[in-house]
Design goal:
With 105 residues, the chain is mainly β. It contains one helix and six strands, in the order ββββββα. Helix content is 13%, strand content 35%.
Length: 105
């Protein structure tokens, strides 16, 4: 789970279903190589990002909040409700790249 101060950073892949109003808001699903993300993001606001397991319907759930302080507070509240969350990685994980070979051992 992370807080992104830049509203556009959680947007990955391409719009799938939803409302896409460039420069104002993005609400709906986005598709990419690893699956689907759900976003509810407003321009100029920080975003709380929750990465989910591969078995979940979405790989990422991202939602805007009015201020960075509220984003951090929301993140802490979520951690309190789901104590088994893996918080060891301070950033979101990269998506797989098509046709990219894994490193040789």
């Amino acid at each position: 789970m992370t807080v992104e101060p830049d509203w556009w950073r959680p947007l990955r892949g391409v719009p799938h279903r939803g409302l896409w109003s460039p420069g104002t808001r993005c609400i709906g699903t986005r598709t990419h190589e690893a699956g689907l993300d759900f976003v509810a993001i407003r321009h100029g606001r920080p975003v709380v990002c929750v990465e989910l397991r591969a078995s979940a319907p979405f790989r990422l759930v991202a939602t805007s909040v009015p201020t960075i302080a509220e984003a951090r507070s929301t993140m802490q509240a979520l951690v309190g409700q789901a104590p088994d969350l893996d918080m060891s990685t301070p950033c979101r994980q990269p998506l797989p790249v098509p046709d990219e070979n894994p490193p040789s051992a």
